[in-house]
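protien #1 (seq + structre)
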Amino acid sequence: MSRPTLLSGWGRTAPTAAHVVRPRTLEQAAEALAQAGPRGALARGLGRSYGDAAQAAGGLVLDCTELTGPPRLDTERQEVTAPAGTSLERIIAHLLRRGYFVPVTPGTGHVTLGGAIAADVHGKNHHADSSIGAHVRALTLLTPAGEVHRLGPDGGDTELFWATVGGMGLTGVVTEATIGVHPVETAYARVDTDRTRDLDSTLELMARTDHAYRYTVCWVDLLARGGSLGRSVLTRAHHARRADLPAPQRRDPLRHRPGAPLAAPPWAPPRLLNRWTVGAFNTAYYNAAPLRRRGQAQPVSGFFHPLDAVQGWNRVYGRHGFVQYQFVVPFGEEDVLRAVAEGLAGAGAPSFLAVLKRMGEPTPGPLSFPRPGWTLALDLPADLPGLARLLNGFDERVLSAGGRLYLAKDSRARPETVHAMYPGLSAWRATRARVDPGGVLVSDLARRLELV
């Protein structure tokens, strides 16, 4: 067996070593699982979980990025099938050339289809279209015993299907999946932008207008204080029609050629991101945004995946990495959002990437994160003094409000907190035990949060 490889999440906070294999077929994946030792095994995609969800210290990690191939589009059924190691970026490029788009994409295209299902990812359209699990028509799941299950949301082993959707890779290795798609006329989004003066006006505008848009996302300045607390830039969009485009773009409306990404510096000076540098960035970004703009045509790559334009952007946080913190609270619990904004501003906690969205109907996955309400995602330097105490306090507010944390982002929560946030955990454990009685599938996240 090869020497152990050091692996970490996108936040780069807690690397651990594991043996890595790269299966290219279902049969090779089954052979690898059969060789798992006492420290267990886990599938891994492109490593975009922020914490330790795709690590298995001392165990065997199946790097599934070579479990890929050309997507297969069925226009009659409006669905696409692809090996689970295929990236959403590749699937989107394949679909756009043919006039279709994925039902859900998170903030990066650099995630595999299998990883997206394992985290039941959501995007800017959750309020309208739910998460990706709601659009999975079928998937193939390989269990440690070598059994291959063909699963779907209707008929058959639906319990195992929904335990897999959002199950963080702990029920088996997804090797292929079919998801629904929808037709589009162009490779552009038609974007409306509004700049709001404070958190109250932001929440009011989103609550009043989000239903009229398929996609909506709001950048929030979490360092602003006083009367500017929670000032924001709100962008909402539909897929652009051909008639919405300027004349030059109408000649080839489905052209999708994202530019080569810029490379972030290989290292960053300590404390590059602090309350002064991030505060200056936030002020500049807010002031540069239009007060009100309508109908701007933006390439889908820029609207859905803006950070993909900078390769390795996570390195700007320095060698200690960063913590991504995302929670959801029900509608009516807006005081939690205010408390978090006030707490971060008061602590001078530098977060230049803070995103607020409204969520709609959830999927039945017991460990799926989304639920109706407000979700706020933000990033913070991992070496910020007092960070653990600050976030633990937020956890308590979120839990008391009936909210939860996103497992695909978490790197530091306490087990008892997460268990209380996910009341379906016991049922999920029972389903998992049925297909993996030996407890082969495990991750650093699962050990830390005592999920298995």
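ok now protien #2
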Amino acid sequence: MLGPMQRPGPAALAAEHAPCLPAYGDHSLADLVPALLDRARHLAEGTLPAFLAAPVAAAPQVVLLVLDGLGEQQLAERPALAPVLSALDGSPLTSVAPSTTASALTSLATGATPAEHGVLGYRLRAAAGVLNVLRWTLDGADARGLVPPHGFCRRPPFLGRRPPVVARAEFAGTGFTEAYLPGADLRGWRVPSSIAVEVRRALAEGVPLVYAYYDGVDKIAHETGLGEHYDAELAAVDRLVGDLLDLLPPGAALVVTADHGQVEVRDEPVRLAPDLLDAVGLLSGEGRFRWLHVPPGAVDDVVAACREAYGHLAWVRTREEVVAEGWLGGRPADDLFERIGDVALAARAPVAFFDPADTGELRLVARHGSLTPAEMLVPLRTAVR
């Protein structure tokens, strides 16, 4: 039995008493790309999802712009900084669980839930270690030899089609790109001003969908928080949205969304009590969605200890509870299930949980991964030229 532990971190409870769950099959990120790819059929059959306006579905060409890290709440708080984007039609979607880039971008591209595609977080158990999915490393070393990217994700991107993907040129050939966008038609850009150039070139080819991705909002939030640098980046992003609207051919549509929102975490990460760490074999996930890998027979004790010590800071769930409550969008296949831990700490207060093996997270100011509305709600804004 684990001994008593000190309650760390802020004393105040988070405002949200229940997690903001992904709306899989209704209005989640996983539902967007399938709706756009088959928009003409949905329009003809009268089966358009509620989030997809008929004029967008009728558009011969659609540009889908994904702004990494721009949450609905952060956008709604700053309409004057993003007048073009704020004036567009639309309503929020939910991200996925965990609300992290690796899982959310994969769900967006594949139209599948994390349980279905298997990219179940930012850091996952694999090859007797913890795989950093975005960097595709194990213990800081390239992991492609031990964990081949091809086949790691169990669903093809874009329902097997190949729309142009306008993204940073540096992403080409990385492990994560090879995992979730195998065979993609990548159109790389080096500086943000080239995004509009590449989108315009793709539209000139007559393709029905162009997927464009920009990560500046997420990067600046991680580095500086949600202050003046974030505001300046949002204003710059709004100019990008205006540029894309201006280049659309008549009848074409622009759809803007994001993979997750952000929460500022100014305090030092919460360090798990020593006796709890002694009872845990491995930590994975990330600061705001920490997985504890527990030896057989110890789960009940670890859950009880976590709820006593951290229940005021986090939703504490067993792996089975996470599945039963619908966080992952189904039950993963047995081999995928092994990628995640046995007990989840999903932060509901503005805190992060420290992993001694992932000290790079100490430098993050704004974070995401958990199930608060600030992280889970993302914008969906549309316009037709």
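The chain has two domains: 29-264+372-384, 274-366.
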